[in-house]
Amino acid sequence: MLPGGLCVLGLFLVTPPELSKDAQNTLKRLIFAVDKYITKGRLWDLLEEDVTDLVTLHICSKTKKAVCRTFDVKDPKSSAKPADWKYQTGVSSSWAMLTCSVELNLQIPVTESSSDNTDKCMKDGLRRWAKQIEAGHCLINGRQASGDSDLISGQKKNTKITQHQTLPARILVSHEQPEEDQRSSAVVQKCCGSVSVRGVVHCRAYIHNNKPKARHAAQAIKRDIINTVSCRMEMFLEDLLINEGSHKGPCSWPQALPRRVFSPVPGSGLSVCDYMFPDESTADVAERLKEMLDWEPLEEDIDNSLEKSQLFSSVSEWEKTDSRSDDSIKHMTSQVQVQNPKGHKAHQYYVGMAVAAAIALLATATSLLYFSE
Questions:
Q1: Gap between the Cα atoms of 241 and 237, Å rounded
Q2: Residues forming a β-bridge with 174
Q3: How far is CA 15 from the centre of its chain?
Q4: Any idea where the domains of the chain sit in the sequence?
Q5: What's the angle, vertex CA 202, arms to CA 200 and CA 208, rounded to 5?
Q6: Low-confidence winner among 1-10, 97-106, 146-155, 361-370 (lowest mean pLDDT)
Q7: Which of 341, 325, 313 is nearest to 193 (CA)?
Q8: Residues 353, 359: contact at Cβ < 8 Å?
Q9: Can you list the positions of beta strands (E) in 155-192?
């Protein structure tokens, strides 16, 4: 439910004095479990500058005493480090917002018809797509966001981004491959079907206005793109597993995935997101937010208009055949061209090699006749 730029910093525990003895051990186990769950389905990699220290806060319900500790979750043997806990006001009111809409048109081959294999193929395909997003060029306000440049290029010193400022972003993804990798990418893979993902997703990232850098903003919006697609595909895979268990089989028709909606957090300039299924309404989302976050959002405050064009996904099964008829060869060739858009270039390459080999043989034969005479 946390858009880009917002992440889990830690967790807190409130106990009476008689349960305070085991609170630290409980918090340590929980903080590592939370990190393991979060990173399990994550498709992007942490950078060296990413903070891996998560915070635990224990509060005694009687004395109101607060004990704050941090743990490095990347070190299983990490011990608790003391940390200061200070109360501040207005922290959530100084964030600029980046917005971006991304069009998807993915086709991921599936090698076997089992649900476990479909899950694996989907995750492998999404990881390849996530790498393209991470390597893409990000434009913010029409300017490339790179390096340690200011988020707003040309801004004067000591000038902060205004509160609630919205900045449009675009991600430019290159599908070109280096020349040395072109031949290795032309792989014939035996598949029984494919999973298609098509549509437009709305992405959002929040950047704090304390000296924001362009690369941090680009990183936040890219991660939000990957997170929202990964989350919805996980829901889709769960439906596939349920359908297989009920013998309904995979859906060969386009299935609408949940739409992303946003709800403002009271007293701040931030919003959390939720996913509204096709058979749900904003009232269902409001009830879910009330249950999970303990506030009562108004239905009219829930923004469900950002993804007007829904995201669809479907599973297609191909005919299984062992014959090597012309039709099957044409079918296999068409699948190779789907996986390798440069197939026509590869064809021209091999034709050229064949012609060159023929000329070389002719030249060799001519030279042998000449020297024999």
A1: 6
A2: none
A3: 37
A4: 10-87, 92-174+193-317
A5: 155
A6: 361-370
A7: 313
A8: no
A9: 166-172
Looking at the chain, list the stretches that DSSP marks H as alpha helix, in order from N- to C-terminal side.
Answer: 23-40, 115-135, 179-185, 214-245, 282-293, 326-339, 343-372
| Cβ–Cβ < 8 Å for 267, 288 | no
Closest by alpha carbon to 253, among 333, 317, 204? 317
**What Å distances lie between residue 166 and 3, 163, 309, 310, CA to CA?**
14, 9, 22, 23
Residue 301 DSSP symbol: G
* pLDDT digit string, tens, across residues 121-177: 888 999 999 999 999 999 998 888 777 788 865 555 455 555 568 899 999 987 665
8 Å CB contact between 240 and 38: no
Reference 224, options 271, 264, 283, 292; nearest CA is 271
Cβ-contact 111, 192 below 8 angstroms = yes
Q: Identify the H or E element spanning 82.
A: strand 81-82
Please answer whether residues 139 and 172 qualify as being in contact, where contact means their C-beta atoms are separated by less than 8 angstroms: yes
Output the CA torsion sign for 298, 299, 304, 306. Answer: negative
Closest by Cα among 239, 254, 257 to 310 = 257
User: Which residue is listed with tokens 């280096």?
Assistant: 178
Does the pTM exceed 0.70?
yes
SS3 content of the chain, % helix, strand, coil (to 5): 40, 25, 35
| Collapsed DSSP state (helix, strand, coil) of residue 60 | strand
